[in-house]
Fold:
Amino acid sequence: MPSELIHRYMRIDHLPQIWCPGCGNGTIMRDVAAAIQELIDDPEKDINRDNIVIVSGIGCSSRAAGYLDFNSIHTTHGRAIAFATGIKFANPKLNVIVLTGDGDCSAIGGNHLIHAARRNMGLTVIAFNNNIYGMTGGQYSPTTPDGDVATTAPFGNVDRPFDIANLASGAGASFSARGDVYHVRETIDIIKEAIQHKGFSLVDVYSVCPTYYGRKNHKGSAVDMLRWQKENLIPTARYYSMPEEERAGKKLIGILSYNDYPEYTEEYAKLVKAYRKKK
Ligand code: SF4
Structure:
């Protein structure tokens, strides 16, 4: 992370951080800080530091809420979106950003994810997706590809994986996108769009976990895993200019779905106002 961002947005007394060398979590945390900085510094955007709340659950990635120096809360496993929903309801003016892992948001927290998406709660969820439970020793998560090896799947995982961005979109999210840790500039821009979106926004950021996922699945070093992202995850403009046959096996980095459904807390406030008027 550039030193300007470190001194402006990190709790220096919490360093050094616990993440392994080569882990993608630091890159995603930096992307979130950079996106926030660019929005705060833009006089045309109505975003300020005091109105930002960072909420996380449990897992390697969820440590980011402690490292970032905002109003922040590190909650219980799988419940980050539930806590964030309460915070948004209590004060709808806040920009509530959830930092969560693939296990945290799509396994134990899967129910909270789909219902926040369905309601179009005005939250931004950044999923640090490393395809495994890193903190607890490498168990398979809902995004571990089938056939891949994990501590709890020594002969290969037979579950089919979730695509978190498509899951959110299918559940009714009004903004769903995919980023990664190789395409830093594109991912910062996507996170900026997500934070500014009024309804529920989700960015599924493909991370790298060289320690558990990479090592168990012979993916090479962190650099090799980044090289794979460079070659297989393709930003929007290039993706759509590629011939159909070249897109096979590649994934798009960018906004996957977008609409302007009414935001939940605004609709709720209208109901309350109408009820009070009637009384
Ligand atoms: S176990 Fe994996 S996800 Fe956790 S800090 Fe290490 S590299 Fe990162």
Notes: The longest helix spans residues 25-41. The chain has a mean pLDDT of 96.
